Amino acid sequence: MRALKIGIVTPAPKGSRHGNRVTALRWAGLLRRSGHHVRVREQWRGESFDVLVALHARRSCDAVVSFVREHPDRPCIVALTGTDLYSDLARDDESAALSIRLATRLVVLQPLAIDRLPEACRSKARTIYQSVGRMPDDTFRMADADDADFAVVVIGHLRPVKDPFRAALAARLLPATSCIRVRHVGAAHTEAMARAARREQSENPRYRWLGELGHRDTLRALRASRLLVHSSVMEGGANVIGEAIVAGVPILASRIDGSRGLLGDDYSGYFPVEDSEALADLLRRAETDGEFLDRLRSQIAARRPLFLPETERECWDSLLGEFVA
User: Fold this and answer.
1) What pLDDT does residue 123 have?
2) Kind and range of the H or E run holding 197
3) Which helix (H) or strand (E) covers residue 20, if one does?
4) What is the mean pLDDT of residues 295-320?
5) For the chain, which domains are there?
6) What is the pLDDT of residues 225-278, one digit of tens each?
7) For residues 217 and 126, what is the distance between their CA atoms, to the nearest angstrom?
8) Which of 231, 251, 281, 284 is most buried as measured by Cβ atoms within 10 A of its Cβ?
9) Do 103 and 76 form a contact (C-beta atoms < 8 A)?
10) How far is CA 176 from CA 205, 276, 278, in A?
11) Which residues contact 25 (CB under 8 A, 6 or more apart)?
């Protein structure tokens, strides 16, 4: 395949740690390693790209419309976020629908997302799992059974859609003999959320809010934990699930499409959305039942090949190969 000039448009600004920006930069790196020339932009400003990749159908709609109008013969790939799939399309947002209709191809981060698309557009969709590179050598050792505490980590910004305090609420229901301690990594998006986190920390001895950390420190917190809890109400396909899978850290996840598409329907670590008692039962079982914890480890190990960089790069090469001989 010849080298292409590829533009990636993301609404997340330079320096942001938001998922869209992280995804855009990772894709740029993968595509450059395949020999392409890539630029990441917040908006398309008329550059002569061979291919445009736009993250977020609604927020990148202007870029999609302008690029397709100026270059109707060139591929425009729209990568769909959880907000696109489970919010904007559900409420018939015109901008999101227009981007999806104009796109040459659609990228989703897990296969169940395709069911959320208009039926006429599903044939344009391709699944590309978000890859995870090798864990840094200086991350803390993996937590093990000899640790005094049974460390559980929550990784995600404090926003209502993440249901951020579900693990803390479940931890309150555990028996006094439990050694479970919840550590939460993530920035508060509002002062009200920050106050709620500080209040929970002061009232709940099992919970500690660490705030926003850099990526390397976040991986340290992940690898120092026995479990990850991912309690989102809505998610397109969280990168942290892939990171936990590659790190070998079992996951307890709310039963939503965004997690089921990554972990598989037969995964044993699901709990109903916003159900503190069900999550508490799983936490208690993971702490006390070694066979259950080993089963979770075995199940995530089977999914690991999906999240390797070479797999994601092969998917992008295949997708671009649909346009270029």
Assistant:
1) 96
2) helix 191-203
3) helix 19-33
4) 96
5) 5-131+308-321 (3.40.50.2000), 150-306 (3.40.50.2000)
6) 999 999 999 888 888 999 999 999 999 999 999 999 999 999 999 999 999 999
7) 32
8) 231
9) yes
10) 11, 17, 18
11) 40
State the DSSP string of 204-241: -TTEEEEE---HHHHHHHHHT-SEEEE--SS-S--HHH
> Measured between alpha carbons, how far is residue 148 from residues 58, 167, 181, 208, 294 in Å?
47, 19, 10, 16, 19
In the block, residue with structure tokens 């419309």: 65
SS3 assignment, position 77? strand
pLDDT over 70 (residue 17): no
In sequence order, what E strands does the chain have? 5-9, 37-41, 51-55, 76-79, 105-108, 125-127, 150-155, 180-185, 207-211, 227-230, 251-254, 270-271
Task: Name 244's Cβ contacts closer than 8 Å, sequence gap at least 6.
Answer: 222, 228, 250, 251, 300
Q: Please give the mean pLDDT across all residues of the chain.
A: 92
Nearest C-alpha neighbor of 10 from the set 32, 42, 34 = 42
**pLDDT tens for residues 200-232?**
999 999 999 999 998 899 999 999 999 999 999
Give CA separation, 200 vs 158, 190, 209, in Å: 13, 16, 9
Q: Which amino acid makes up residue 76? A: C
